[in-house]
Amino acid sequence: MQQSLALEDATEVSEHRRHSTALGKGLRLELENAREGRAVLYRGDFPIKTVDLGDKVARKLFLTETMELGATQSRLAKALKVSRQTLHNYREIKERFGVVGLIDGYRMADATDAKEQRVRHEAQHPPGNKAQQVAAIRAEEKACSAAAQGTLNFSFEEEQGQAKKVAHADQPFSTEHGWEASRYAGCFVYWPTLVARWRWLELVMGHFGAGWRIFAVFVLMAGRDIRSIEQLKNVRAKEAARVLGLAKLGAKTQVWEWFYTVARQGSAKALLADYCRYQIRAGLVGGWIWFTDGHLLPYTGKEPVHYSYNTQRRMPVPGRTNQVTCDASGRIVDFEIQEGKGTMKQWILEVADKWQPELATRPVAVFDREGYDAGFFSRLISDGCPFVSWEKNVDAQRLAAIEAKRFATDFTFNDKRYSVFEQPKEFSYTAEEQGETHTFTLRHIHIWNRSSDRRTCALVYADAALLSLEEATRAILSRWGASENTFKHLQERHPAHYQPGFKLVESERQDIANPDIKPLEKRIGRLGKELGKLYKKLSKTPESTNKDGSVRRNSQRRRLHETIKRKEQELEDLREEKGRLPERVDVSTLQNYRSFKQVDNEGKYLFDFVTAAVWNARKQMVDWLRAYYDYDNEVVDLFYAITHCHGWVRNSAEAVTVRLEPLQQAKRRAAQEQFCRKLTALGAQTPLGKRLVVEVGESPLQ
Questions:
Q1: Which ranges in 318-443 belong to alpha helices (H)?
Q2: Residue 473 to residues 85, 250, 440, 518, 630: CA-CA distances in angstroms?
Q3: Distance between CA 106 and CA 118 in Å, rounded?
Q4: CA distances from 239 to 26, 181, 323, 646 (A)
Q5: Distance between CA 361 and CA 370 in Å, rounded?
Q6: pLDDT reported for residue 592
Q7: Which of 43, 2, 11, 3 is nearest to 24 (CA)?
Q8: How wide is the angle at C-alpha 601 spanned by C-alphas 600 and 606, nearest 5°?
Q9: Beta partners for 512?
Q10: Residues 6 or more apart from 671 whose CB is under 8 A from it?
Q11: Closest to 49 in 3D by CA, of 61, 58, 40
Q12: Which residues contact 72 (CB under 8 A, 6 or more apart)?
């Protein structure tokens, strides 16, 4: 059987050492043969276990105990020449049937025959092959899980059959402890909402297994506005770990190791797609009106990258564009990071097509003047996509001349008075490829902001049954200007521009505007100006004649004619030369040009997935909190006051309980208590089955 080695046996063991294998967690296995002989398990340089591999029972116990110590299962399987499925079965048999269930497949030393052995075992465990019984239990649990989940399966379950297994020690909130103080206790309120409403832990652990730890760190960063992983040095590691469900929040190097382990898998887009699909199917985001806008992610490094556009500075700058789509309440539906300026028009079409199978009707697309284009309108109408947009280049004088009595519909929005009316407006678009002209009619809405006495226009493609005049106007007013409430506030509350694990790769777009065209355009422009001056001079120059009345051969007017003819021919030659040149060329064909780089978006997608999840959970929780607090303009500040509360954490076998310090004002404290009861009533549980409980009270340590 198996026994612990005393330190004085180390010399005897060293004489028989043949093969050494590192198993992880500081463990090392030395053995003479994978099937027989003696094996010794070391932690560092100290032997802790020895086993005779010829004894099948001792071998089983040794394998399970080595895995419990943290050995990597694949390395252990390779060293002892067993399959990983066998090791997995051993571990589950021991968990479900105990040590006796693990070894009862072999005859006991004092049993006279197999029949006597089976009789002894039947009193303790069901007879039969334990590996088959475990497989049946797993299949039953999978079927129950699928039935409970219904049609809301994640892609990792469809592809792999089940979520990635995570060892007990690596599970969230696996370390039990009594009451401990934590200044980050308020951030715990995100956990019940994410777990119960978004099935967030199931999603993350299904894709990345034990990699959920870096996502827990990102939740803390998004919830407490910690702008980078480097700033975690200012966080009290033990206090934060208790709230995040971690056994330990290590140093910066360990956090980076967690991040790169997850980022190397390249599953960020699959994770985001599962998250977006689930919240759409579950009704956690709206499907009526979707707002889309692009937001600059600037790049300040030295490598050449494509340019985006900075709206505030009104100039192109190096960077990327994050195309984000939100619902009417400001919850993020989906987003995509695009190289350079990006294509918002294409994203509006793609996001509608992407999630159309999950929606009853096609959502109304709302976008700003960047999307104003007759060709784009034609594509949206052809695809049957309703939309609302600002009109571009409106005639201010024409709007000012409209009589006030025509603005027949009045309403108030964000404490501002508006009057509107609509009339049809004809558009026509001819596609160059097909040559067909598409004529269509849009609703042309005239908007008068009476509070500021300003007028503008919007365009709508939607029936009045889908969007009334007032609803269409509210839609276009609810995203921009003083009414903007999503991206502007998101950047104030969360590190939306942070890019962990900055990495550059070769860009697929290596084309630029042909540099030979620009000097030709300058020469063409210069010749055009010269010809304009010559035409003007010619019109003012009279014809010179001889004494007999004939036209002089060398008159100034004739010389002007000849100069103009020469300049016109030169201009025509330049235009032909320009027409022969390609508009864009590959930089690899040019001299003194470096190839474009592209920022790898894997780490950015992972971080923004957490930021979006925290933002959407915050939106949901503010809605819940609003029911318990009368002052609507203070609800958001009250929510953030709760998330910044200090408190105490207890982790028992049944529940993870967080007690928040009470707020001072009576009304705010009453709302805080009701809000915490609401979170507890969600019934959120960890994968280990522990309930997540949030309460308000005094210190339990007094």
A1: 344-355, 374-382, 396-400
A2: 61, 52, 21, 43, 28
A3: 10
A4: 26, 7, 36, 10
A5: 25
A6: 66
A7: 43
A8: 135
A9: 585
A10: 625, 628, 629, 638
A11: 40
A12: 23, 24, 25
Strand 289-298 and strand 364-367: the pairing is parallel
What SS3 class is residue 663? coil
Give the SS3 label for residue 660.
Answer: strand
Compute φ and ψ for 245, nearest 5 degrees: 80, 15
Q: Which two tokens stand for residue 119?
A: 């009789």
Measured distance CA(33)–CA(26) in Å, rounded:
22
Q: Is 98 left (phi over 0), alpha (psi -120 to 50) or beta?
A: left
Please give the angle made by the CA atoms of 643, 645 and 648, to the nearest 5 degrees.
115
Structure tokens at 445: 């809405």
Q: In sequence order, what are the beta bridge partners of 296?
A: 321
What HEC string does 257-287 produce? Answer: HHHHHHHCCCCHHHHHHHHHHHHHHCCCCCC
Q: Which residues sit opposite 437 in a β-bridge?
A: 430
- Counting Cβ atoms within 10 Å, is residue 109 exposed (0-12), middle (13-18) or buried (19+)? exposed
Q: Which has the closest alpha carbon to 185: 629, 681, 552, 692?
A: 692
CA max distance for the chain: 148
Q: How far is CA 80 from the centre of its chain?
A: 42
Region of 348 (left: φ > 0; alpha: ψ -120 to 50; beta: rest) is: alpha
Placement of tokens 């010389």 in the chain: 559
Owner of token pair 């969600």:
682
The pTM assigned to this predicted structure is: 0.71
Asked if residue 154 lies in contact with residue 203, where contact means CB atoms within 8 angstroms, the answer is yes
Give the pLDDT of residue 17. 44
Distance CA 651, CA 33 (A): 44
Residue 423: what pLDDT? 94
Question: 213 Cβ partners below 8 Å, 6+ apart?
Answer: 170, 244, 246, 258
- What pLDDT, on the 0 to 100 scale, is given for residue 162? 44
Question: Edge-to-edge, what's the strand order for the sheet holding 38-43?
Answer: 19-24, 27-31, 38-43, 46-52
d(CA 129, CA 93): 10
- The type of residue at 281 is R
* Token pair recorded at residue 503: 């990495």
Q: Round to the nearest angstrom and report the end-to-end CA distance of the chain.
A: 50
What pLDDT, on a 0 to 100 scale, did the predictor assign at position 139? 62
CA-to-CA dists, residue 416 to 73, 475, 616, 661, angstroms: 65, 15, 27, 39
- Domain spans, the chain: 7-132, 168-222+603-696, 369-478, 511-544+553-595
Amino acid letter, 372: Y
Distance from C-alpha of 95 to C-alpha of 178, rounded to nearest angstrom: 25
Find out whether 125 and 101 touch, Cβ atoms under 8 Å: yes
Spatial CA neighbour of 215 closest among 650, 603, 487: 603
Beta bridge partners of 417: 412
| List of the chain residues with pLDDT < 50 | 1-17, 106-111, 144-151, 158-163
Q: Does an H or E element contain 607, and which? A: helix 602-626
Residue 504 · residue 554 · CB < 8 Å: no
Question: What pLDDT does 116 receive?
Answer: 60
Dihedral sign, Cα of residue 296, residue 297, residue 301, residue 302: negative
> What element of type H or E holds 64?
helix 56-68
